[in-house]
Specification:
23 helices; Glutaredoxin; 5 domains; Thioredoxin_domain; 19 strands; binds 2-acetamido-2-deoxy-beta-D-glucopyranose; alpha/beta; five-stranded mixed beta sheet; 701 residues
Length: 701
């Protein structure tokens, strides 16, 4: 009887599985959906534009998951496909095993971008959705590197460098700079040789990137070379690239490394590329050009600096977004008093500056204080745009307080920015302290306005949190020419509101500092009146008034045509459109999308945007009752794991955890207060202890 039932159940189960399989397999392809490419038509098909190709196996579960998404993507993109010259295609790697082996397909599904001359890069974003695939297609159709037809007859190829020659280069034999790449290979002669790289998923892709880099750098008189680490193990190990010599694990995460050789230098001539491997050539090109330029400490004139700070910030210039957004660090000296040793510090700056994008090093033999003042004064011409508001005035005293320094020192100017910075170098010691100088540089090391993306948001939010309390993000779009032009206007409005706020922030800091000064002076007076010992008075006089520079704004823009999933990903709810501004409080989990009156924050209403900045940071100076209401972001930006991830991993316990976290947050202030009271009490008790009254006190506890 029981076996009967068992059998029936089994056959029912089999039936369900069969039905499910049929249902899965029965996703009908849309009309006109193309057959997979084969080795016969692959080359010919590639010749007509860009292709995004899904290399799949009919047996892999992830491939089957992707199949219906791929069909939908193809269907939705059909029209745009002709317009943008990008086609979604497939290759069945079971039927076309030869083709997949030629293309070195090692895992399924492998979604890759091809142009007529071959493989460009992989699309590795996961999970792969219709939206993310289409966004990829749109992005790549506009990337001029992809259509570079003459790349294969590239004017200058990367040089094959052997270990000994490399050692000579870094010992001072190089007369031009060299950017050198290091590969986990034995026999890569030409950069584009077909080589089997072991355990290096990114190697093939980087071969093309390297070609693009070689081509672009040859126009800059920077040579490129490549070195086989498996053939030159000693050199590579010395350089710290031991993993390129020997496979240490089987994750396939070895990556080609890159370093710059500076010419005519017998020491410190090799600078490592500071970031991980990327298919995008721009980071490498900026690193090589900028670091080589910085290593020469070029002279700059006041006129050039004035032109740079007066530049208009433009969104999407040429290939680089906001290309005129550089930072200029200027070593400023008086030729009458400077000594040769003063210049030594510049040498030590080359390496740390190579790690900060957009930063350029210069020198000048005259004081830049007048330039700095002049530029700052011109900010006031801008922010007095509203005639119905009281005139805002340049505060000479505050300016002097911030810029006082001996020469030599460093000035920092940013493209498009009226506010400059001066390093407080009061002595030789301060001017030779590389750590202190770099700490100061780091504080101001973001460009005037940064592009915000899903991948750099976290870095921006954790950037110098003590000084920069908010990140203000202007929403823009590169969707079409009109939107691009509109985006320039929007970014400039955000800047204007931020300068308007900057004035209020500075005035407030000035007041606070003056209050502290008055208090200090009063304190000294009081001590004198009480005829306190001289050393007490001197101690009081020595107390330094801290140099306040907090509550600064970090500015960014977000291209919503490029970052379609941004809001969802970070749990920012509601509709968001071009023109809107989002403010994120960097020190907690709040974001703000509404102004003090509950309307959407935009840069069209400058005084309300400024008011939002003031209400958040300096509520005592707010004009309207501060009524901004922040939302709790459900994916905390500064925690490694987002709440959503927690739910994902822990199921129901995840939700419980969230509740616990929420309760803790809600209770936070009171338990913190209790902790403080306890601490305070304890301190008191200890003080009593010093007076010799411990025993009695203890008993009372
Ligand atoms: C698409 O790209 C191919 C190859 O680059 C080119 O020959 C063709 O003219 C392009 N078609 C359109 C419509 O742009
Ligand atoms: C390096 O030195 C050589 C020979 O002295 C010179 O020709 C070359 O211009 C120098 N290169 C740089 C970048 O200074
Ligand atoms: C930079 O300026 C100084 C002082 O004017 C001058 O002596 C020096 O030759 C200049 N250097 C270059 C590379 O032009
Ligand atoms: C000027 O400022 C006033 C008061 O802050 C405000 O009501 C008005 O809308 C502003 N005008 C412009 C053009 O921003």
């Amino acid at each position: 009887m029981t076996t009967q039932l068992g059998k029936r159940l089994l056959s029912l189960l089999a039936c369900i599985i069969l039905l499910a399989t049929i249902a899965l397999a029965a996703t009908e392809p849309p009309m006109g959906f193309p057959e997979p490419l084969t080795s016969k038509n692959f080359k010919e098909e590639l010749s007509n534009g860009l292709h995004i190709i899904d290399f799949y196996s009919p047996y892999c579960p992830h491939c089957r998951q992707l199949a219906p998404i791929w069909m939908e993507t193809w269907e939705e993109f059909k029209e745009e496909s002709k317009e943008l010259n990008v086609t979604f295609s497939q290759v069945n790697c079971v039927e076309s095993a030869d083709l997949c082996s030629d293309e070195k397909i090692e895992r399924f599904p492998d979604v890759r971008l091809y142009n007529p001359s071959g493989y460009i890069k992989s699309f590795s974003e996961n999970p792969k959705t219709k939206d993310s695939l289409i966004a990829f297609a749109r992005r790549e159709s506009k990337n001029p590197d992809n259509l570079d037809a003459d790349l294969d007859s590239s004017i200058k190829q990367s040089e094959h460098i052997k270990g000994f020659d490399f050692l000579e280069l870094i010992a001072g034999k190089a007369t031009t700079p060299y950017l050198v790449s290091f590969w986990p290979a034995k026999d890569l002669k030409n950069g584009d040789d077909t080589v089997d790289f072991e355990n290096c998923n990114k190697c093939h892709e980087f071969q093309r990137t390297w070609k693009l880099i070689s081509k672009q750098l040859s126009a800059e008189d920077i040579k490129t070379g490549h070195l086989n680490c498996e053939f030159n193990p000693t050199v590579c190990k010395e350089l710290g690239f031991g993993d390129l010599v020997k496979i240490t694990n089987h994750r396939g995460d070895r990556e080609p490394k890159v370093a710059l050789v500076l010419p005519n230098k017998t020491s410190n001539s090799l600078i490592d590329y500071p970031k991980g491997c990327s298919a995008e050539p721009n980071g490498y090109i900026d690193f090589a050009k900028r670091t080589f330029a910085n290593s020469k400490f070029p002279n700059i004139t006041e006129e050039e600096l004035r032109r740079k700070v007066n530049k208009n910030i433009e969104f999407l210039q040429e290939k680089r977004p906001v290309s005129n957004n550089d930072i200029h660090l200027v070593f400023t000296y008086d030729p009458k008093t400077v000594v040769t040793e003063d210049f030594d510090i510049l040498e030590y700056l080359i390496e740390p500056l190579s790690k900060i994008p957009n930063i350029y090093l210069h020198q000048i033999d005259k004081n830049l204080i007048d330039l700095s003042r002049g530029v700052f004064e011109s900010m006031y011409e801008k922010i007095n745009y509203n005639t119905s508001e009281a005139q805002k005035h340049f505060n000479e005293e505050y300016f002097t307080m911030n810029t006082v320094s001996q020469l030599p020192t460093f000035f920092m100017f940013k493209d498009g920015d009226f506010v400059s910075h001066v390093y407080h170098g009061y002595s030789t010691t301060e001017m030779r302290n590389i750590e202190q100088i770099m700490r100061w540089v780091q504080r101001y090391s973001t460009p005037l306005v940064s592009e915000v993306t899903s991948s750099n948001l976290k870095d921006l939010l954790s950037f110098q949190t003590e000084d920069y309390s908010n990140l203000a993000i202007q929403l823009v779009s590169s969707g079409n020419d009109k939107q691009i032009r509109g985006s320039n206007t929007l970014i400039n409005s955000l800047l204007l509101a931020s300068w308007d706020y900057e004035h209020i922030r500075m005035e407030n800091n000035f007041e606070l500092i003056n209050e502290k000064r008055t208090k200090k002076a009063d304190g000294i007076k009081l001590l004198r009146e009480k005829k306190a010992p001289a050393d007490k008075v001197v101690d009081k006089m020595r107390v330094e008034i801290p140099h306040l520079d907090h509550s600064k704004l970090l500015l960014g823009y977000l291209d919503i045509a490029k970052e379609k999933n941004f809001f969802k990903r970070f749990g920012i709810t509601g509709d968001h459109k071009v023109g809107d501004v989002i403010i994120i409080d960097k020190s907690n989990n709040y974001y703000f999308t509404k102004d003090n009156f509950g309307n959407t924050l935009t840069s069209n209403k400058l005084h309300l945007l400024r008011e939002a900045f003031v209400s958040l940071n300096i509520p005592s100076k707010a004009l309207y009752a501060s009524k901004l209401k922040g939302r709790l972001i459900n994916s905390p930006f500064h925690n490694a794991v987002s709440f959503l991830d927690v739910v994902h991993q822990n199921g129901i316990y995840g939700y419980l955890l969230i509740i616990v976290v929420i309760i803790t947050i809600a209770k936070g202030p009171s338990s913190y207060r209790r902790y403080k009271i306890r601490k305070h009490y304890k301190a008191k008790r200890n003080a009593v202890g010093i007076l010799g009254n411990t025993e009695k006190k203890k008993n009372q506890d």
